[in-house]
Amino acid sequence: MHARTLAVATAAVLAVVGLGSPAAVAAPSGLPDDFNGDGYRDLVIGTPKASGGTVTVLLGSASGVSPARSMTITQNTPGVPGVSESEDKFGENVTSGDVDGDGYADLIVGAPREEVTGKPRGSVTIMWGGVKPFTSGGMVLTAPTADADFFGEGTAFADLDGDGTGNLVVVGGNSFWWYADGKPSQDGALAPEVGFLPENVQLDGVVAGHFSGTDGSDYVLHGKKLAADSGASSTYVGVLRGGPGDLGYNYSALAEGTTPGGASWASAVAGGDINGDGYDDLVTGNTAVAQGGSFTVRYGRAAGLPLTGTTYTQASAGVPGTDEAFDDFGAAVAVGDATGDGRADVAIGASYEDVDGHNNVGNVVFLKGGSGGLTTSGAQSFHQATPGVPGAAEAGDHFGSSLRLRDINGNGRADLAVGAFGEDVLPNGYDDGAAWVLRGATTGLTSTYATAFNATDFDYPVVDGRRFADTFGR
Question: In 3-state terms, the chain is what percent helix, strand and coil (to 5)?
Answer without folding.
Answer: 0, 35, 60
